[in-house]
Every structure is written in C-alpha cells, then in structure tokens.
Amino acid sequence: MNFGILFGFLIYLVILAYIGWWANKYTKTEDQYFVGGRKVHVLAATLSDKASDFSGWLMLGYPGSAFKAGLGAFWAGIGCLFGTLADYLLIGPRLRIYAGKFRAITLPDYLEARLKDNTKLIRILSAAIILVFMTAYVAAQFAAGGKTFAQAFNVSVTTGILITVIILTAYVITGGFFAVVWTDVVQAMFMLLTLIIMPILALVEIGGLDRATQIIASVDPNKLHPFGGATGWAAIVFAIGYASWIVGYLGQPHIVTRYMSVEDPRKLRRPGIFISGIWTTIVLWGAFFAGFLGFALVASGSIKVEDPERIVPAMAIHFLPGWVAGFVIAGIISAVMSTADSQLLVASSAIARDIYHKVLGQELGKKQMVNISRIVVAAVALVAMWFAITGPKVIYQMVATAWGGLAVGFGPILTLSLWWKRVTKEAGIVGMAYGLISEVILEAKIYGWAFNPKAPGFFGTLGQWFNGVPVFFINFFVTLFIIIIVSLLTKPPEDVVKLHEELFKKVPIEKSEKIKTARMKSQAENVFDFAVSSGLL
Predict the structure, then answer these.
(1) 517 and 490 within one domain
(2) Residues spanned by the domain of 531
(3) What's the half-sphere exposure (Cβ side, CA atoms, 13 Å) at 475?
C-alpha cells in the first residue's frame, strides 16, 4: 500500500468529518434535514447540484466510455451540458416557486399538492420509483468507489465497496442536507481540479495532441471519427445514443431537490446558469480528454490498466507524488460520494416521510422523524451495497439504467406540471405507473439498458432501428405522450388551474431607460454585480 496516497486521502476524510459535525448543529428538524430549511445560498446549491449530478459516472464511467469509443463519446458531454441548461430553464425556478407555495419538502410532496391527489397514489408511485431506481443508482456509486479504492490501494473491489459504504453512510446519517450540500461544494472543487490536471499531465507525457491522435489512429482509426465510423441513419442513432442523457435531467429527484432548497428562485436563472454552465463545461471536457488521452497512454505503454473505467485513478498514481495522488483519489471518491449521499437522502425521504408519515399517517415529532430517516439511510445503503457487490460493476451502464428509470418516472409529469396548467392527477398516476412498469420490464427483461436487435419479435425490430440508444430516451417521449392524452381526456380542478395562472402570470414591464440599461448588461456583468452585492467578492 502507498502510504503517501493514504495520507492525502485521510486529510480529505478529516475535512468531511468536520463538515458533518458542523452541519449537525443545523439539523434539528425534518425541513432542515431534507432541504436545509430553504436557506441554501445559490452558489452552494448550484455546485451541490452539479456534484450530485455527475457522480462516479463523470470520474470513471465517462472517461471509460471515451477510452473505449474515442471522439464519438463527446456527444454524451453535449447531452449533459444541454440537460443542465434545460434543468435551470425549465425546472429550477418554477419548482422552487411551487415548492415554497405548497411548503413541499420532497418531490412527491410537490406532485401530490400540484395535481391535488387525495388518493395517495402519486405519493406511493413516487416512493416506488425512487426506491427501485435510486437504490440501483446508489449501487452504481458504491461500485465506482470500489473500483477507485481497488486501483489506489491495491485491495479488492469488494473491499473498496465496503469502505465507500462506511464513509458515505456515516456523514449522511450525521448531517443530513446541510452536510450533503457543503461536502458537495468541497467535492465539486476536488472534481474540477482533478479533471483539469489529469489531461494536462497526459498531454505533456504523450508529447502533444498530434502525437496522441497518431497513436490512437494507429490502433483504431474509428476512435477519431465523431460518429464512431458510422454513416447515415446509423450515425444519427450513434449521436442520439450518447447525447440522450439530456432528457434525464428533467426527472432526477436528487438534483431537483437542490432547486427546492434555494433561498431566492430568481437566482437560479442568471447566476445559477452561469456558475453551473461554466463548471459543467470544464469538467466534461476534462473527463472526456482524460479517457481519450488515457487510451493513447495505454497504447503507448506508459500506463497499464485492466479496466478502462479505472483510467483516471491509474493516471493519478502514475503522474503524481503519493500524497498529491491521495488528494486526487479523494477527488474521485468525491464524485461518488456527492451523488450517493444525495440519493440516500432522497431514498430515505421516500420511506420515512412519504410512506411512513404521509401515507400511513404516523404522527411523530420532528426529531423522531429525522432519526427514522437516518435508520432508513442505513437500510437503503445495505441493500445498495449488496447490489454493488453482486452486480455487473460497469458504471456507465449501471448509471444509465438507474438514470433512465428516474427520467421516465418523473421527467414527463414534472415538466408538464410546471408548464401546463391542464395536466391532471389521472394523467400523473397513469404516466408514472407506466414509467415504472415499462422501465423495469424493458430494461430488466427485454433489452437491458440500451436497445439491441437480439430482443424477440417486434422488440428486436425496434432494437435494429435504435440499436445502442438507451431505452429511457424513447420511453421518455412515450410517457410524455400518454400523460398529454390522459390529461386531455380528463379535467383538472378549477382552483388548480387558477393557481397556476396566478403564479406564472406574465406582467408587462414599463420600458424605462433604467430597465433598458440593465438589459444591455452582459451575462458576466450581471453575475459580477450579483457576486459583489451578495458579498462573494
């Protein structure tokens, strides 16, 4: 074992432990445990949003995909960037306004209140979707942590998974939402630094980008083709397959919960988009080039790696002094933890709040509810650990499967409920039930995570047309269509329609010289003004 790496990593753990201890002072009620009392600064919420979004997929899954697919994997980065922007434009501000109006703490809280569902079916379906796919998502993060520890400390992947589970579960149980948000901020910065440093060091080692492309071309020229060598319809399907992540952003509970916690919904637009967009662009470039150049390093014999998804930790150990590599390994574990902690929190809210408290009607004190939530976190973590140990351990595919289930289950109904006054509870129930059942059947029984021609009968024909496209991408639009049709066949309550109109009524603006001057400011100038006025600069 490299004790220098261990030393750097232990320093990181001390930082996390301190944040958990500090956050526990602000975690006395259910509202504080799940959404930070709706007092989270937009900078912290934005960085926490992205850190919880990208997970081990960014540090292991995506570089591994770029390692295997080459230039074509860049389409996944494009999908993630535009998905991020879609979240801030379509979901964030409106969800924060509605959540404040309804005093909603969780996504099921909001959906039940918005659709005025007194049957509890939407809450039950929400909890089922969260538990099934969020547990699978947490398992993917545990597997990613296991791979990182295995590469860094020469232990088995199973041992690495156990270490990840112990570290992560401990501080989620201790600190709740405040601990999750502020550890995410630290982790977001670790991820950023790691994905800036690794590609630069790789370029220096190889001798420049031209040399890297020469090495890659000599092994597999298709890795330098933007569509993996495909042409015509196959090229379109190839691009859709990688960029399909974009629709998933509209339905991820562990991401949209961040918007519900923001102090001022207006700040989710300009400063939120600016901070998130810049951070996302940098890390996606870094993750892609880490995998792309990592292939050149392996092909040239500079690095040896058994699993393409372990290329980033392998590069850190190869390039850096032990204690610095320990910090980089911590950055990789950061990506894993920053998503899994949020997912554990959302999963615990599905059981403790949505089922135990709201559906079963068990009245407990706020402190007791927090304690029950902590017990649930531990239980979900144990189940996810079992799946991580026994599952396929391919991070890209594991995340795509879980991401897709949440996308189809929540994305269509959440987006429509925020923008269309006419959506009904019947449509929500039918759409969410279809999303849950269809994703389980299509992914677990028929296709797996992506369409393929090996499926029987009609499904095989469909698989030929969309071979390689994730199942959730097509199923998202099918669910959207179902919800629209059912809404048109049913009628929403008039008070719900009226509330929607009042909340998002367009108010005419007088065209004064002062307003014209404000609108002429650039995005950067407005963000700078915001940073100065809020005391950040």
Answers:
(1) no
(2) 509-536
(3) 32
The answer on 54 and 199 residing in a single domain is: yes
Tell me if 188 is assigned to some domain: yes
Which helix or strand (DSSP H or E) is residue 204 part of? Answer: helix 157-206
Q: Rounded distance, CA 480 to CA 463, Å?
A: 21
Q: Is 512 exposed, middle or buried (0-12, 13-18, 19+ CB in 10 A)?
A: exposed
Residue 252 contacts by C-beta under 8 Å, 6 or more apart in sequence?
Answer: 53, 403, 406, 407, 410
* Per-residue pLDDT at 291: 95
Q: Tell me, yes or no, whether 182 lies in a domain.
A: yes
Q: Which two tokens stand for residue 266?
A: 């207006």
Number of domains in the chain: 3
Judging by beta carbons within 10 Å of its beta carbon (0-12, 13-18, 19+), is residue 103 exposed, middle or buried? exposed
Higher local confidence (pLDDT), 179 or 118: 118
Q: Is the pTM above the cut of 0.85?
A: no
DSSP 26: T
pLDDT for 263: 67
The per-residue pLDDT for 92 is: 86
| 356 and 311 assigned to the same domain | yes
Percent of the chain whose pLDDT exceeds 90: 41
DSSP 405-419: HHHHHHHHHHHHHHH
352 and 429 both lie in a single domain: no
Going from the C-alpha of 47 to that of each of 12, 205, 263, 468, the distances in angstroms are 18, 31, 15, 31
Q: Is 450 helix (H, G, I), strand (E, B) or coil?
A: strand
Same domain, yes or no, for 119 and 264? yes
Based on the fold, state whether residues 378 and 470 are members of the same structural domain. Answer: no
The arithmetic mean of pLDDT across residues 79-88, rounded, is 90
pLDDT score for 33:
43
Residue 355 in domain:
yes
Q: Which tens digits make up the pLDDT trace of 112-130?
A: 999 999 999 999 999 899 9
Same domain, 373 and 433: no
Query: Closest by alpha carbon to 271, among 464, 36, 529?
Result: 529
User: Are residues 494 and 348 part of one domain?
Assistant: no
DSSP assignment string, 256-287: HHHHHHBS-GGGGTHHHHHHHHHHHHHHHHHH
Determine whether 247 is exposed, middle or buried from the number of CB atoms within 10 Å of its CB (0-12, 13-18, 19+).
Answer: buried
Give the span between the Cα atoms of 227 and 486, in whole angstroms: 38
53/177: higher pLDDT: 53
Is pLDDT at 39 greater than 80 in this prediction?
no
The whole-angstrom separation of Cα 116 and Cα 453 is 42
Residue type, 84: T
Average pLDDT (492-506) is 87
